[in-house]
């Protein structure tokens, strides 16, 4: 893949103008250099010894801007992986490459782990690990979503979905996952949650290709047989969706990964298709409110428009205004790393200002880390659209249904 | 001007001789009609031969190659990337050749190791998996531009006087011997006579022309070889096709690019060799036998060089690849009864040092000086690169961020300064500091001279961006007037275009359109104020 990708760049530089990081930090020479240019130089006899690769937040904005279709972010990640074959990977990168292992440990110890992460004496330790102390770390729940789901009775239904939960919904915000299940079940789907690991995106973004490939192989082994049985794969996390759709075929380079990618849906994308086919349950109750919608970079780069804007538009009473202010700056694990906090907040400034000028009741976005960043930058409450949909459905459901949903929580 | 030895021709042979004589303490002047390496010395693969290519047919050349290969890896190390190379055999090629080749290599002293085919396939995934034998040899990549500049720099350090853009217009004879040459500065048109005890004729393909100035016939066979430059390194090692030497069977990693070649076409004139479309398509087709997906890779440029083959039989003997690649030293006193003139013809870049040493031996013998060659034991040196010091104070705590952006923070007496050493050419990572260092070596240089010293504009975009950037930066630094910068800009763009034109397909065609949009439509290049000069 990389070979031909190196040849497509015309050097037009439009990617640099689209890069949120280069826009706020002039010491980053931009995606053109970090991707296609460095790709040629590191193969040469005098590879540059600079550390520009860590500037990339993996938001993929550059790829959307590129008129030549250069997979710039993929090239940057390949360069990063190549660099870490020769030098030691920073501790923070290694930690963040394994967010699900982190999650498992932190969840067992929650709420103590959350208190520790907030404690004053822990801050220097975090800093030593290369983790930014500028923002709160995501809190962990003692009962993960998957632990909760496994104790729940199976609800048979004719149509079937394999749900890819993702680390954030599983460990940090199980309610999003519960809402996803409720919405899918309300639309007549039986939800299956197979054994699964982190999608691998944090590992890829942190330069640990081997770890990412391991995760991809595991998840492929779990989900592909279900696809063959007619399941579609749905995830409520745009980054997981992007990774399964786009990175698995690149990373594994086999027909199985390509086949899997054709059956992966981001939840909003899936529901929008149901709506287009007239199959989306439209028994929404009224949810009055003025919301501002933030489009995550990883939804944008799936090239599918704004599915959630379309779906939420069907909920009576809900007024959704688009923020249209670009990248929030957190970009997965990026903004949690020491040295990236200021950059991350500077990138997010446009989003924060937009939120402050709209003054909505809440911000809605389908990305868990965007939600944390916007809440941190503005103090405004941020909700996942699945939670809004569950709310809308629950207001119309017959009493029994409403009880059922309450019992499920 | 007077000197002991005047060398005509500043390619590898001439500069090698200047270096050799400078080390022997002999007063030397060298003239070159263009920039160093204007002729053949920069128009090749960039391959430092192990000799393997010549082992079967031309064992003398092969032996010279392997000896020089080992010597140059010692004395010209900064100009060489010791990549190693492979000879790979395609199952469809002559099955008996590898056996004969290995025997010939053993005889000529070329170390050859047969290795598992899978090893080379793992290293070079672009290779045809249908190869059935692979041999590792000590081939290497040599940077021709850098080699010439190291020779020039080292020779100058030892007192040699080297003049570029200076052409010999006639040879002066007196009393049956050559005593000097009239030269012309190609830029100012100024002429002067250089008197010398001995003139050495080393202009490669122009050797016959120079000899003719003394009324002497030197039989040359000029043979054009064309080459294709690919955008990135398709291989980290040299790849040779193991068969009787033919077209398009060598790929060399040259810096950030790879070069595929060559062809062998007889030509009449040594001037401006250009690759033909037919040659390039022929090479791509042959190259695909070695690299099946070659058409998918981006070709950024094509160029051609002229091999100065010596042909004593004057056309009666064999042709092209059949002519020996070893060199000949012609003492015209012995050969033609004319004292004061020596010609060096034939040979190849890999053996330039040996040619220079043997010529040097003849020179000291003729001059009656007793000094032996030291080039085999004296390492070449290159000028040190100094960054441009454009300082600006930085508020707060400085931080070393990135080399690529050209910003480095330097602490000096309680104040942090940001050292700006901006990248001018992104494709080849050439900074403003590199340009200034090159300018110190070639004070009258134009942008093409700086390009040859820095690789400016030699990468993917072929100068689309760095041409105007470098012209502007040098103009801004006060080195050039606006008019001169404009002329240089036109020259550089024109020169880049020359090599792109033969390969206008795929991505490079889009790049060329983009480049035209920048220079013709946006900058109106043809009408820039050139102060009356025409390009």
Provide a descriptive summary of the structure in words.
The complex is a heterodimer of chains A (409) and B (535). Chain A has helices spanning 2-5, 14-18, 20-24, 31-41, 61-65, 72-86, 91-96, 99-109, 112-118, 123-128, 145-150, 167-172, 174-186, 201-205, 209-228, 238-252, 255-261, 267-276, 297-300, 307-312, 341-358, 368-378, 385-394, 399-408, and strands at residues 159-163, 189-192, 232-235, 264-266, 289-293, 318-322, 362-364, 382-383. Among the domains of chain A are: 2-88, Fumarate Reductase Iron-sulfur Protein, Chain B, domain 2; 289-394, Rossmann fold, CATH 3.40.50. In chain A, strand 7, helix 22 and strand 8 form a beta-alpha-beta unit. In chain A, the strands form two sheets. A four-stranded parallel beta sheet of chain A has the order 2-1-3-4, sandwiched between helices. Chain A has a four-stranded parallel beta sheet with strand order 6-5-7-8. Chain A is of the alpha/beta class and 409 residues long. The model of chain A is unreliable at 399-409 (pLDDT under 50). Chain A contains 24 helices and eight strands. Chain B is α+β, with helices and mostly antiparallel strands and 535 residues long. Chain B has three domains: 1-46 and 143-219 and 311-379, FAD/NAD(P)-binding domain (3-Layer(bba) Sandwich); 79-141 and 224-298, D-Amino Acid Oxidase, Chain A, domain 2; 422-527, no CATH class. In chain B, the strands form five sheets. In chain B, strands 5, 6, 7, 13, 14, 15, 16, 17 and 18 form a nine-stranded mixed beta sheet that branches. In chain B, strands 1, 2, 9, 10, 11, 12, 19 and 20 form an eight-stranded mixed beta sheet that branches. Chain B is globular and about 65 Å long. The model of chain B is unreliable at 389-406 (pLDDT under 50). The chains are: A alpha/beta (409), B alpha+beta (535). The interface between A and B is medium-sized, with 31 and 33 residues.
């Amino acid at each position: 893949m990389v070979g031909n990708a190196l040849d497509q760049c015309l050097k037009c530089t439009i990617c640099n103008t689209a890069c949120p990081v280069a826009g706020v930090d002039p010491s980053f020479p931009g995606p053109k250099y970090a991707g296609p240019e460095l790709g040629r130089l590191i193969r040469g006899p005098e590879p540059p010894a600079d550390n520009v690769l860590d500037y990339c937040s993996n938001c993929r904005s550059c790829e959307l801007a590129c008129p030549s279709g250069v997979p710039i972010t993929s090239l940057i990640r390949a360069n990063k992986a190549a660099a870490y074959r020769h030098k030691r990977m920073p501790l923070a990168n290694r930690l963040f490459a394994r967010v699900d292992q982190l999650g498992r440990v932190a969840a067992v110890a929650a709420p103590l782990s959350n208190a520790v992460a907030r404690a004053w004496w822990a801050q220097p330790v975090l800093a030593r690990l290369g983790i930014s102390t500028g923002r709160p770390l995501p809190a962990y729940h003692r009962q993960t979503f998957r632990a909760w789901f496994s104790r729940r009775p199976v609800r048979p239904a004719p149509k079937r979905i394999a749900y890819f939960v993702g680390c954030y919904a599983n460990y940090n915000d199980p309610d999003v996952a519960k809402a996803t299940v409720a919405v899918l079940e309300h639309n007549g789907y039986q939800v299956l949650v197979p054994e699964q690991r982190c999608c691998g995106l944090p590992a890829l973004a942190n330069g640990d290709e081997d770890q990412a490939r391991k995760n991809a192989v595991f998840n492929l082994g779990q989900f592909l047989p279900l696809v063959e049985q007619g399941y579609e794969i749905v995830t409520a996390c745009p980054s997981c969706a992007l990774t399964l759709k786009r990175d698995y075929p690149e990373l594994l380079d086999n027909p199985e990964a390509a086949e899997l990618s054709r059956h992966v849906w981001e939840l909003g994308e899936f529901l929008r298709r149901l709506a287009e086919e007239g199959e989306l349950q439209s028994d929404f109750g009224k949810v009055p409110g003025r919301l501002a919608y933030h489009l995550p970079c990883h939804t944008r780069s799936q090239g599918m428009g704004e599915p959630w804007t379309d779906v939420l538009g069907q909920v009576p009473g809900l007024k959704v205004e688009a923020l249209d202010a670009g990248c929030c700056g957190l970009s997965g694990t990026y903004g949690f790393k020491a040295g990236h906090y200021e950059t991350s907040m500077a990138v997010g400034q446009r989003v924060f200002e937009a939120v402050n000028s709209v003054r909505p009741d809440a911000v809605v976005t389908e990305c868990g880390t965007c939600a944390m960043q916007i809440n941190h930058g503005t103090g405004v409450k941020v909700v996942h659209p699945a939670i809004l949909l569950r709310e809308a459905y629950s207001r119309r459901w017959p009493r029994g249904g409403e009880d059922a949903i309450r019992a499920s929580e | 001007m007077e000197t002991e030895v005047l060398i005509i021709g500043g390619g590898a042979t001439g500069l090698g001789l200047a270096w050799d004589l400078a080390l022997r303490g002999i007063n030397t002047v060298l003239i070159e009609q263009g920039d160093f390496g204007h002729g053949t010395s920069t128009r090749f693969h960039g391959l430092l031969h192990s000799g393997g290519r010549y082992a079967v047919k031309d064992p003398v050349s092969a032996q010279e190659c392997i000896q020089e290969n080992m010597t140059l890896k010692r004395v010209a190390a900064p100009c060489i990337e010791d990549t190693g190379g492979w000879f790979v055999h395609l199952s469809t090629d002559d099955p008996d050749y590898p056996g004969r080749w290995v025997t010939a290599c053993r005889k000529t002293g070329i170390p050859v190791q047969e290795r598992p085919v899978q090893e080379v396939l793992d290293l070079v995934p672009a290779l045809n998996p249908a190869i059935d034998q692979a041999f590792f040899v000590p081939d290497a990549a040599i940077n021709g531009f850098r080699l010439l500049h190291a020779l020039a720099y080292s020779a100058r350090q030892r007192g040699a006087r080297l003049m570029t853009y200076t052409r010999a217009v006639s040879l002066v004879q007196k009393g049956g011997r050559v005593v000097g040459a009239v030269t012309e500065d190609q830029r100012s048109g100024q002429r002067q006579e250089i008197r010398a005890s001995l003139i050495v004729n080393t202009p490669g393909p122009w050797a016959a022309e120079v000899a003719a100035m003394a009324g002497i016939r030197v039989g040359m066979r000029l043979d054009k070889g064309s080459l294709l430059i690919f955008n990135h390194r398709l291989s980290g090692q040299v790849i040779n096709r193991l068969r009787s030497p033919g077209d398009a069977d060598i790929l060399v990693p040259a810096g950030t690019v790879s070069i595929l070649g060559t062809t062998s076409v007889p030509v009449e004139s040594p001037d401006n060799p250009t690759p033909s479309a037919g040659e390039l398509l022929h090479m791509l087709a042959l190259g695909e036998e070695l690299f099946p997906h070659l058409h998918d890779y981006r070709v950024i440029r094509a160029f051609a060089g002229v091999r100065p083959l010596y042909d004593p039989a004057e056309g009666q003997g064999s042709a092209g690849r059949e002519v020996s690649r070893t060199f000949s030293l012609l003492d015209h006193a012995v050969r033609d009864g004319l004292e004061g003139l020596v010609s060096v013809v034939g040979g190849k870049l890999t053996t330039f040092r040996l040619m220079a040493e043997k010529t040097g031996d003849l020179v000291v013998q003729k001059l009656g000086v007793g000094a032996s060659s030291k080039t085999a034991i004296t390492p070449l040196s290159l000028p040190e690169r100094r960054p441009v010091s454009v300082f600006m104070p930085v508020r707060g705590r400085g931080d070393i961020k990135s080399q690529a952006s050209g910003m480095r923070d330097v602490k000096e007496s309680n104040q942090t300064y940001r050292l700006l050493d901006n990248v001018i050419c992104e494709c080849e990572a050439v900074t403003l500091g590199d340009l200034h260092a090159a300018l110190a070596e070639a004070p009258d240089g134009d942008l093409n001279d700086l390009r040859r010293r820095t690789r400016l504009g030699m990468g993917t975009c072929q100068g689309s961006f760095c041409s105007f950037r470098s012209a502007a930066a040098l103009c801004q630094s006060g080195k050039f007037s606006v008019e001169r910068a404009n002329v240089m800009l036109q020259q550089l763009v024109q020169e880049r275009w020359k090599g792109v034109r033969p390969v206008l397909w795929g991505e490079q065609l889009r790049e060329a359109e983009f480049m035209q949009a920048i220079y013709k439509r946006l900058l109106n290049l043809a009408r820039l104020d050139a102060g009356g000069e025409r390009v």
